Prior knowledge:
By secondary structure, this protein is an alpha+beta fold. The strands form ten sheets. It has an eight-stranded mixed sheet with strand order 5-4-9-2-1-10-13-12, with no helix packed on it.
Amino acid sequence: MINLRLFFKxxxxxxxxxxxxxxxxxxxxxxxxxxxxxxxxxxNAMAVIREHDIEFRMIxxxxxxxxxxxxxTILDKRGEGLIDxxxxxxxxxxxxxxxxxxxxxxxxxIRDLRKNEFVDxxxxxxFALYAETRVTYTDIYSNNFPVTVEYEFEIEYRNAFFxxxxxxxxRIGVSVQESTFSLILPSDxxxxxxxxxxxxxxxxxxxxxQADTKKWFVRNLKAIKSEPYMxxxxxxxxxxxxSYNDFTYGGYKGNMxxxxxxxxxxxxxxxxxxxxxxxxxxxxxxxxxxxxxxxEKARIIYEYVQGRTRYVSITLGIGGLQPFDAETVDKTGYxxxxxxxxxxxxxxxxxxxxxxxxxxxxGNDGIETVPEFPDNLFNHVILCVPHNGDTLWLxxxxxxxxxxxxxxxxxxxxxxxxxxxxGILTRTPAFSRQNSQHSRNIxxxxxxxxSVQATANSRFEGLNYxxxxxLMLEGQEARKRYYLQNLGVNAPNIxxxxxxxxxxxxxxxxEAVNFSTRQYASRAGNRMFLEPNLLGKGSYxxxxxxxxxxxxxxxxxxxxxxxxxxxxxxxYNFAHLPSDVLEDTDFGFYEARYEIDGDRxxxxxxxxxxxxRHQPERYAEFAEFFRKVYSxxxxxxxxxxx
Length: 642
């Protein structure tokens, strides 16, 4: 008689390996199921980085390899673009390997990415003439979410590289389960580190004989919620800057432990690049032969450069950091920011004007240079011309900016002046409210049918000049389309317009637009309702009852002011006027005033924000200020027919 208990026990032993073999892949794949993500990491998230491991191994001072593995789950369509990968490389680096795998919402493998899904092409933009930089990227489409993608790649660096910084949470709306960053260094190489926005984080350290390993990690970083007027991301999330002391880049040895020493290295890259053809040297001297003021000489030379050169992007080898020589720019008539700045400096030197090649981080993306931590966070070059306490800054890549105007992307930020005696860290000037106003004077005639005929004369100064300059560069048809879409009234009829530029160190654009609109004021019986603020209505209307998460971060805005002179139809008088408003708060200033003289009304409004950082608990005050601006801008007066 068969012992059934023993039979099934033996059968279970025999089947167990088969069951494990069948089940094992499913268990492994299920690791990335979306249901395994903690609810706290899904809050405010469009994607979750499940695992992100970066290993940077320095083999020597001139050779290194970076291995990176990343697993990210895209929760919904908002994060669709995060499913792709984009890797840049150049003549000093190459991608040794790259692979990827897609998983469904249950963590089951969909497929491995095919070789042809990794596209390799030049990264040169349309304005780039010479570029050795290339990019490998994917462009994967998915209409099923959640979906998970796993990438793994290795990049080799040779002859020139800077160690990578670590930015584990680089996007709003993305949470992080775990991210690690490892540095493996030969014992004779010394790096410096600066960690921000994360307390009590020290590396795990291991000695591997000829190399030391340092490993950092972060876990369970909740997604950053997007809120208006919040601080920039680098003020909110943990990141680590990594920088050299001694280093070699493209065969040039340098030291970055101080700004002084880093400046010496940049100066060495530029050495011997400023020789000019004799004919050019003689010509620029003739341009300023009757001029004594060095800053006036600089203006003349700058305009000469603007008239005969154009900007192109050039990144060849160490050319990403080293300028083409002045003779090449003189011959070809083009160059990148480095080459054009070096060329302009050479011309100024020829006419006896001292200037400093100056490296800066332009734009509003990325991490601002930290004064106490010398590091190569720069992406642009401009020119500094100092003289007797007065400084003229030149943006050599622009053919339109007047001398002394460098735009909002270069203003009020650290800049490293490169002198023959080393680097000097200073700061570019900020635009003040007084020299960045946008003022508008409007005459408007209201007809009895509610239509309006108006002329708006606007003045754009300083920072606002830069905002209006792109329209100045457009043709008449493009300008008219702009006014039709952005003037600020419904269905305007643009009758005429003009733009005039006045160049100076604080330049101005003056604009005049004549327009009409058929239906502006509304009527009810013998009453007419009119919004006196014709064009200057604020658009930000924050909700009142909101649980604010982040600090409120405001900058000093330019002054925006409108004066509207209204003429009302014959047979009407003013039955009701809104009250004057004056709000002078920690967040900003706002004033609205009404003055009546017979059948004429003059409406005045002024608005600007004040720089500062405020606790979330002050959100109610902040919201009240902006809601007051929003409602007052739209306040109506009542006209009554006699």
